[in-house]
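Give me structure tokens for this 467-residue protein.
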Amino acid sequence: MAVVSLYQKQKKIYPRAVSGLFMTWRWAFVWTTQLLFYGLPWIGWNDRQAVLFDLGARRFYIGPLVLYPQDFIYLTGVLVISAYALFLFTAVAGRLWCGYACPQTVYTELFMWVERKIEGDRAARMKLDEAAWTVDKAWRKSAKQFAWVAMSLWTGFTFVGYFTPIKTLAAEAVTLGFGPWEWFWVLFYGLATYGNAGFLREQVCKYMCPYARFQSAMFDKDTLIITYDAERGEPRGSRSKKADPTKLGLGACIDCSLCVHVCPTGIDIRKGLQYECIGCAACIDVCDGVMDKMGYARGLVRYDTQNGLRQHLGRGQMWRRVLRPRVLVYSSILALILAAGFASLLMRTPFKVDVVRDRASLARLVDEGRIENVYRLQVMNATESRQHYKVSVDGMKGIGLAESPAIQIEPAQAIWVTLAVRVPPESARAVGSGAHPIQFQIDLLDDVAGKTVRASITEKSTFVVPR
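Here you go.
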């Protein structure tokens, strides 16, 4: 009986270390992103953490900004900006995000660096894996796993530090006194980092990431991609450094397969563009090194466009076609959204107000036949200094507050204020029974005396006149 396997067995990929211009750029992004990720929670601002998403208090601190759930529009803006930036980068130069700044790429690069330091480069790792278990192999494998686990747990700890003050979290870590949710997210995020960067690696990019599947919809023939110049490189074949490839009938490719050995997803770029390619340009760096050693011109593997390769376009011609209408439209939209977002933040009112008519207290008659409705106002101070406010009401003749309390709110706090609004009987008779629109005006004062109004918010509500 024949056994048919439904799944192709995957060979383990052993990427070889490489150096060059694009690898330098990759490491620059690794250092930049990780210094930001691990460093931001430890930066202070006004006696608090500079970046803190306090879900319990429903306040989000980003530098000088204090955001509330009502500022959800800014999260929407960030997502829209991210989407358009991804469209723009992909239309210009393919999978730049994947190759240089994606967390999967960044952490895989870090984990492989640790692996190389402990186990050696490609040939040494392959030899170590095939060898029998010895003391040397055991300590190298154990040391690597210990380093990976430590990096993963520190990553999970830092992630939680964006939601729980990290200094408090560090004090809890000394005694292992985390709360249930803190334990869950430290371990969950740490396990995700350990599994994805340590073991799954290229499988995430090839099979789990949806971007690999729909990237072709954002590519066209003028998108910069990593390409192999088959016209120059074929027919490939090995030869000595002193040999003349023209006399041998060979192209520039010496068939060393180093471009395959350095590829983190294990593809052969000489077979053309493939969805598994993450655009890391490691093959460009290693091929340029080989060309230098052979005395050939660089660029056998390079960033180029399909039109540029087929039509033999010069660099200037290629770049003029890269900056095509599609790219300019994406750039313009992105610039407009960024400008609108920054303008909105600059003009943002430093406090927020929600008005709710108290449903537990119906409209009622009070002294002198006046009709009273009760409202609850939530006033949120979005600054980090104590603020003073004044409330007034308008919309009906003679309408006013039973009392006009002085409202004082501490930095980045919110309070509920109960206000009784009254209308004289003649105004009520003039408008008749039913719900009538009114407006509350909340003024931010410069001090307790309130001689200067710094900002105002108007909130609509309704006043109910009973039958």
